[in-house]
Amino acid sequence: MRMHMIAKRSGWLLLLAMILVTSACGDDAAGVKEASAPLADDGQRYTITWTMHLNEAVPEDAEMIRYLEDKFNVDLVVWNLENNNYEALLDLKLAKGEIPDLFRIRQPNDLLKYQDLQVLAEIPLEMLNTHAPNLTRTIDANAPGYMELGKIEGSYYGIPVVNPSNKFRIPVVYRSDWLDNLGLKPPTTLEEFEKVIYAFTFQDPDGNGKNDTYGLSSEGMNVVFGAFGQMVFTEQLYFAWKDQRLVIGALQPEMKNAIAYLQRWYKDGVIDPEFVTGENKGGYKHLSHAFINGRIGMTSMGNYYHWTQAGDYLTFNARGEEVPVEASFNALELVKKNSKAKIVFGPPVTGPEGKSGSKAYDMLMSFTAIGANAAKDPGKMARILEILDYVSANPDLDENMSMKYGVQGEHWMWAGTSKDDVVILPPYNERANYTNQIGANIGMTVPDALTGRREQWASTLGLDKNGIYNAMQVSFPALIKYSPELIKLRNKAYISMITGDRPVADFDTFVQEFNAAGGDQVVEDANVWYQSQAKE
Fold first, then answer.
1. 384-416, pLDDT tens digit by residue?
2. What is d(CA 123, CA 159) in angstroms, rounded to the nearest whole number?
3. Are 426 and 436 spatial neighbours (Cβ–Cβ below 8 Å)?
4. Which of 85, 100, 124, 484 is most buried by a 10 A CB count?
């Protein structure tokens, strides 16, 4: 993934920890001034194994790792577990009896699994507040209640990684050049949506004289489900609130109406018959190749920043000059295929009962935990928490940016005197994953005020409204046990009904099959869990 030229500055409570840089570097390898000793410095030098988000391996001699080692009197060993295969690589290590001291749990639902395996340490609240005060204060101030999600049976085992940008839902995207060619506008209701997707299918929107286009594919279907208030085609079981209880959205009776629409559209040839295999055909998972290749005219795949068109807002170049932002990801690949292609965002369409929404990712991204072995030495555990606090939530602006982006003046500089934005300097602005190469950005994401230009742009588009979130953000035993098979059962039934292999009337039979396969237990335990959390 190409590094963005500009990185936003967060509000002071939300800043990631960094290193204060001076122009007079002296003999310091990282080019930063010497800082005070850590609180937990008992004179003992600890070896700490550390896991993080990695797109590229961190070298053993990475300069920012060396700086942290000197500052905190530790030897940091970064486990190079590539992100796309993280769980498999981590579990292989665990099977060999190796447990990381700083434990990244990429999938929130896995917190309970790893706690059951006894590879996580209980983190006393007093130790958290003493040795990671900026971190806990930031989460409590900007994501109230989220710290509680890291508890299991009343004890902290995970520190929640909260992504504030997930307040923005997945956009609803159309080929605006197709709309223009057909004299149409982005639809606002389900009836208008139907008119558009039929026109995309049968009125030659790309003008090539061929019958080779469709209205939508799999990701667009979630906008249809959203018009009835629920989400279905997701990687998780999506829970919703109904009658003051948690329910599973895919089981709600209003979904029969959504399926009826989709079944008719599929029969009429409006839905891409390849929807079963998805819109992405490999590579970066947020790319909709069906849309990029001009096969479909609408989608709701990928986050808002995967659809930035050239000039959508102003950013900074390597000289600190304001310039139009470049196209990114889906928008970039689209214009590579067709230089005249354009896109436009539309609202989630409104259904017969006034409901609307598109999929939104959970604010809870993951958990950061402490490995069980580290808990055997309170001094080591305290040192780990202080490093995590320093590299994740330090309120000093210069330290913040330096730990995230490297050495000031070498890797980055402030874009202006206001310190609102930073500019990544050449040649690093052209190096994908350069932060991994220098050992920077090893902390966890903390919630911030979303003051960056990219986020301001997303706000102007109304993407912070009408998102449909999963009402259950953590796991519990029944969900771990039953959800893999339940998800398969859900997908198979929905696909069969959409393609007409099963009638819509079979929906009630599907619900019975789902509940008998563990669905009843999952819903019951979800509500028991919620009630216990509400009491706490």
1. 999 999 999 999 999 989 999 999 999 999 987
2. 9
3. no
4. 100
pLDDT tens digits, residue range 37-69? 566 677 899 999 999 999 899 999 999 999 999
Q: Would you identify the CATH topology of the domain 6-166+362-449?
A: D-Maltodextrin-Binding Protein; domain 2 (3.40.190)
Rounded to an integer, what distance in angstroms lies between the CA atom of residue 303 and that of residue 169? 7
SS3 content of the chain, % helix, strand, coil (to 5): 40, 15, 45
Judge contact between 494 and 501, C-beta under 8 A: no
pTM of the model: 0.82
Using CA atoms, how far apart are residues 18 and 395, in angstroms rounded to an integer? 9
Residue 443 makes CB contacts below 8 A (sequence gap 6+) with: 16, 17, 52, 388, 390, 391, 392, 393, 403, 404
246, 472 Cβ separation under 8 angstroms: yes
Between the two ends of the chain, the Cα-to-Cα distance in Å is 42
Tokens read off for 497: 């009904």
